[in-house]
Amino acid sequence: MVSMGLFNKIACQKCGKAVRMTFKVGKQLVCHDCYVMLEHPERLKKKKERPKILLSTSATYWGGHIKHPIGKNGESGRLLVTEEKITFNNITFLSKNKWTIEIPLEKVLWDKILIGTGKDIAYEQQMSGWAFFATGLPVSTYSRQTTFFTITFKDENNVVHSPKFQVKNTKEFSEVLYNRISKIKKRELTKEDAEEPLKVLKMRYAKGEISRKDFEQKKKDLEK
Ligand SMILES: [Zn+2]
User: How far apart are the first and last CA of the chain?
Assistant: First the structure.
């Protein structure tokens, strides 16, 4: 239920903020923020959980994902990078043909990432339509190179895919990708560092070099 203070602001009876529009919660008239907090806390949670988008760029997908073969023009769409994954959505007017490739960054085989150059087929096709008639120059004049990113990863079923993308904001994509790689690698290294002493301890216990009591005690110390 809503009441409006058309000329004067009304103080929210929960937080005291002066607002034009109030909502009735029980017997209190409250502001919109308090109303959401009291009546729809799930909305607040959803808002917070939305991942931060590090990069959004138009891109062309050139195959490599087993589930998504391509036509000769590639598949144009949008590439999004968040802290946890890379997502490619194709853009088609027929909604039944819409699909998404999701690449969880944790599942990327970083050593197999390929960044290479090749012929910009999309550009050539686009130019060849009118270039000759418009300029009289041979179509081959409009050939150019572009950068391709091949990102190999394992999906949730452990199937390996190597989708290849041509990205509009090549430089930004490289930077974002590199930053994410560094962060994830660092995280993995710290994890390994933490696991290493425990491995040594287990080994020594297995070899009979230390007693069970010593093993349990040392393990406790390490986990502190
Ligand atoms: Zn309030």
Answer: 53
How far apart (Å, rounded) are the C-alpha atoms in residues 85 and 153? Answer: 11
Contacts for 193 with CB less than 8 Å, ≥ 6 apart = none
Q: Please tell me the distance from the alpha carbon of residue 224 to that of residue 220, in angstroms, as a whole number.
A: 7
Threshold 0.90, pTM exceeds: no
Residue percentage of the chain with pLDDT more than 70: 86
CA dist., res. 128 & res. 126, Å (int)? 6
Residues with CB under 5 A from ligand 1 (ion): 12, 14-15, 17, 30-31, 34
Q: Within 10 A of 97 (CB to CB), how many other CB atoms are there?
A: 10
| Tokens representing residue 79 in the block | 């590439």
Ligand 1 centroid to residue 32 C-alpha, Å: 7
Tokens of 171: 């430089």
Strand partners for 165: 61, 149
